[in-house]
Write a structure and sequence with these properties.
Layout (H helix, E strand, L loop, with lengths): L21 H8 L9 E2 L9 E6 L5 E7 L5 E7 L7 E6 L6 E2 L7 E6 L5 E6 L19 E2 L5 E6 L6 E2 L7 E6 L6 E5 L6 E5 L7 E2 L7 E6 L5 E6 L5 H11 L2 E2 L5 E6 L6 E2 L7 E6 L5 E6 L12 E6 L5 E3 L7 E6 L5 E6 L10 E7 L2
Antiparallel strand pairs: 1-2, 2-27, 3-4, 4-5, 5-6, 7-8, 8-10, 9-18, 10-11, 12-13, 13-14, 14-15, 16-17, 17-19, 19-20, 21-22, 22-23, 23-24, 25-26, 26-27
Length: 364
């Protein structure tokens, strides 16, 4: 799911390192959580599209960083210091001004700015319990937990004014806005399967967009709002029965996911990748004709695959590898003006298992 920062490796995913001490929290995140300034890092050979790469976070588990509509801020999820599970934070593009916007209760995931920057949507389990939910079992096999207490909330970007948008039984998460702000697309298990839905920004007019057995999730709108990209599994036979059995226990095994696109009303679903591996977190290139996504398709060792970012033409299937670091790269997003790329990576870790947020100028 988008909410998982237990990133792919070691068979399927990488379990993050244990939380760090409070002293490190104060030192690295700054007093009051202000954050450390961005740090320029060395370029990686072959990454010709990424110029002026900067590291924005420096400890813990940080991922799913997404731009505000004006391209000046990022909203992301993080577990660091003495935190036991993810909360939602906002920071400037240089890593400064970091502050928490979620309640501090339960587990949160999948945050996204409204286009006007006034509100943030995210999923949280805090209504089920103020405590962190039980983590998934370790691999092998690795599974994502589909926490049924996840609901989608809207929060003022300044903090406060929390509004609940979904209240259906079961998992509701992975919300993102259309560029014009008129719709929110998200993933829900309310029908007994993981499908893509959309709704108005106030939570009204909820509509089911997909209805195919298997996991459909991680949706994002194209720049013109006419198309949605997403990841999906299409299990059949025994694989479908296994999927349904795991889902009944609130679990998904994400070893085989392909990238798809469809019209914004759910029609004309088209498969973009077909490599039988784990492909996820697609996002539209500013042209609307390509997708950037993470995949382990090039990894020779299935027991410890490496994930990198690839750019694929939706119609022709032509691909180009974007990242070449030996560790995980994922959760990419282009800035609204297309001049920058933000993503999460294990590169340059000071401690094993950490994942941090990086940003670069995009050279097309």
């Amino acid at each position: 799911m988008n909410h998982s920062k237990k990133l792919f490796t070691g068979g399927i995913l990488l379990a993050f390192a244990a939380s760090l001490g409070a002293g490190c929290l104060a030192e690295r995140w700054g007093e009051g959580g202000a954050g450390s300034p961005a740090r320029a890092v060395a370029p990686v050979e072959g990454e010709s599209h990424l110029v002026n790469v900067r590291q924005l976070t420096f400890e813990g588990e940080n991922a799913e960083a997404y731009f505000s509509g004006d391209g000046r801020q990022l909203v992301f999820q993080s577990t660091h210091g003495e935190m036991k599970c993810d909360q939602i934070f906002v920071m400037n593009l240089d890593g400064s001004g970091r502050r928490q916007v979620s309640t501090g209760k339960g587990r949160t995931t999948c945050s996204y700015f409204s286009p006007d920057g006034k509100r943030i949507v995210y999923a949280s389990t805090h209504l089920g319990s103020p405590d962190c939910p039980t983590p998934p079992p370790p691999p092998p096999p690795y599974v994502w937990r589909v926490y049924e207490d996840f609901d989608i909330f809207s929060e003022s970007a300044k903090g406060g004014d929390l509004k609940r948008l979904t209240d259906a039984r079961g998992y509701d998460a992975e919300p993102t806005y259309s560029r014009d702000g008129t719709r929110i697309v998200f993933t829900s298990a309310r029908t007994g399967d993981l499908e893509i839905w959309d709704m108005a920004p106030d939570g009204s007019d909820q509509r089911q967009l997909t209805d195919i057995p298997g996991y459909d999730g991680g949706p994002f709108f194209s720049p013109d709002g006419k198309t949605i990209c997403f990841r999906a599994s299409r299990p059949k036979g025994e694989a479908l029965e296994k999927y349904r059995g795991l889902l009944a226990k609130g679990q998904v095994e994400p070893s085989r996911l392909e990238i798809y696109v469809m019209n914004a009303d759910g029609t004309n679903i088209r498969q973009v990748t077909s490599n039988g591996r784990a492909n996820f977190c697609p996002f539209f290139h500013p042209s609307g004709r390509k997708l950037i996504y993470a995949t382990n398709k090039h990894s020779k060792d299935r027991r410890k695959p490496n994930f990198d970012l690839f750019l694929i033409d939706i119609d022709s299937g032509e691909e180009e590898r974007i990242t070449h670091a030996p560790d995980f790269d994922g959760f990419p997003m282009f800035s609204p003006d297309g001049t920058k790329l933000v993503w999460a990576s294990n590169r340059f870790n000071e401690r094993p298992g950490e994942t941090n947020v990086f940003i670069a100028d995009w050279k097309d």
